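Quarterly update from the structural biology core.
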Amino acid sequence: MSDIQHAHIAHGVDHVAYPTFDPIGTVRFYRDTMGFPVVHSICAAGWGKEKHPDFIHFFFDIGNDDRLAFFYYFGFTKPEGLPVGDSYSTFPEGTPEWFIRSRHLAIHVDSEEELLEYRRRLDASEWPVEMQIQHETIESIYTHDPNGYMIEVTRALRPVTPQEDLDAALTIDALVDIAAEPGHDMGMLLARKAELIIERAAAWQENQDALSTSTEGASR
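Predicted structure, tokenized:
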């Protein structure tokens, strides 16, 4: 079996892409307000097998070799009377705001100073910060771009520990196990997670004992 099978070989986000009906506002928000340079664009005329308008696909550098991209289709105007939501991800009237806001893009910064600099830039623009919140391990500011997409800028309040990584893996394994069951809820998730802890405890202890033995041997 090849060593590459099941290995983590990805290197982060190449780009995330959205449609825009407002290229002027999009450039003013990301390039002129946030300070993300335009690094690539594609002018596509007569593109693909399906009949659709000519378009431009343009990219902003958001750091760490990651890019945020937009499609602008010439002559394709935004339909009137869309329900709540952004350009294409729309929801029926009455959809809870917390559900709509769950779809967003978060951009990482390293420090409080950098986070507050983005707050300063946004508050001086047409798109001021709507929320600044400290979560469990992060602090974030939020706004909506000219297309209605929610944008988050976030910094870590502290490092995530290996124990938290292990807890996350357990939680998601438990979720996968119960999500197909009718009426699944938080109680079922926590019960399954407890079962997994018990099932895996012996293997964890065996691994810890092996690590301890290896460390003691190396120190002699």
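The longest strand covers residues 38-44.
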